[in-house]
Amino acid sequence: MNSVYYIYDSVCGKIMIESDGSAVTLLKTDGFAKPSGKKASDVITDMAARQLDEYFDGRRNRFDVPLCPRGTDFQVNVWNALCKIPYGETRSYKQIAQAVDKPGAYRAVGLANNRNPIWIMIPCHRVIGSDGTLTGYGGGLKMKQQLLDMEKQEKRGKQQV
Fold it and tell me: Which terminus of the chain is less hemmed in, N or C, by CB atoms within 10 Å?
């Protein structure tokens, strides 16, 4: 099946959701990457949009829409490690390097993080510098801070209930 893409309006701006018909293959800010498919929607883009709505509304802290990020074996290992970072928490590049059994490869982890094709759902926004500072993010540091603040606030709110 050919890929399709759908432009989703979020609280963080427009997000392009691309699907190959069986999984999300790309999730980026609109205009960040040139879409490879035709503008349309399918079951996968609809599911992704619904789950993003729930995420932004604080009703979802994990995504279960099928994902198919394309990258090197190392990149995929890093992206899998990112998916294990709990909602509302952060990890450093060094901690992710240790998690993928490459303790000295924190710069390579940073590059893999930068190449993450399905941000938010593969939560690269949860990776910060070892000193606790925010570092680069495809959607911009303002969006990264918004996502982290939203998750921390939602997590705190659920703990108090």
Answer: C
